[in-house]
Amino acid sequence: MKPIMLQGHERAITQIKYNREGDLLFSSSKDNKPNVWYSLNGERLGSFNGHQGVVWCIDVDWTTTRFMSGAGDRTCRIWDCETGKEIGCITSASSVRTCMFSYSANMAVYTTDKAMKQDCEMFIIDTRVVDDSTGQQDPILRIPIKGSRVSSILWDLDDSIISGHENGEITQWDLKVKHLCFSYCGSKHYLPEENFFVNDMQWNKDGTMFITASKDHTAKLFDAKDLLLLKTYKTERPVNSASISPIMEHVVLGGGQEAMDVTTTSTRVGKFDSRFFHMVFEEEFGRVKGHFGPINSVAFHPDGKGYSSGGEDGYVRVHTFDSSYFEYNFDY
Question: What are the WD repeat spans here (predicted)?
Fold first, then answer.
């Protein structure tokens, strides 16, 4: 399995995301230019130019007509996917940490950091009327986050939002009644409580379950309706990202030793591999090497025939599975 290496960023990758069809792959990094690539051959289509700081989060709507990015320059921007032109820029009081379109893409959510004497807040905006005049004072709904700040987010259809927090809590918000529905708080596994940080959350294909990746060395599978914990996948290093296969009962985890400690260990000790687990039996059955730093984001291709990973080394690696992957049967 020889990957295609995409080199278009100057700094560490923060997030990668496929569009619904899987023909395009979007990537963001700690430089200020999100990129879009052909996933089949790795050709770069272009960049979205306008941000002045690290781009923390990206999302694309289901028709691949609009692209959204949130950055450390205190803006959330919406772009035209075809031309790369900026449609609207929403300013905030602090860095935008997470963002996502609703299922219909008529609305979007973004959250801000708890910084510069500003509390973490969640904003719901109407993307149909967004323009450069839209700012922090013009959201449809504004939800103050009183506890730990939001570190990852999912939009469940059009009526609820699931947020992951840096203290390990996962919360579901009902937008119709504007209050918290369910909340899950993980138990202590390996590390002190400040390392529960939920780095990433991703849906399965039909939106009935989602997987979380956390600094507590685990990824967890939840029921989306009531946040019931279904499965736990344990590793020896922080998990930065996790994704669920759309056609197999497999999950892939990416992570590794903290980036600040990377120079003290070899790639073997740092465990910078993509790790494959059986979704039901929670057992690891494969690893893919390649990155020479922690993996910050992983995503299965929507057709399930490959996956991509983006790392602290600034590379995005696009993998297409060999036939042996599909012939493999897990013994139980």
Answer: 6-47, 48-89, 288-318
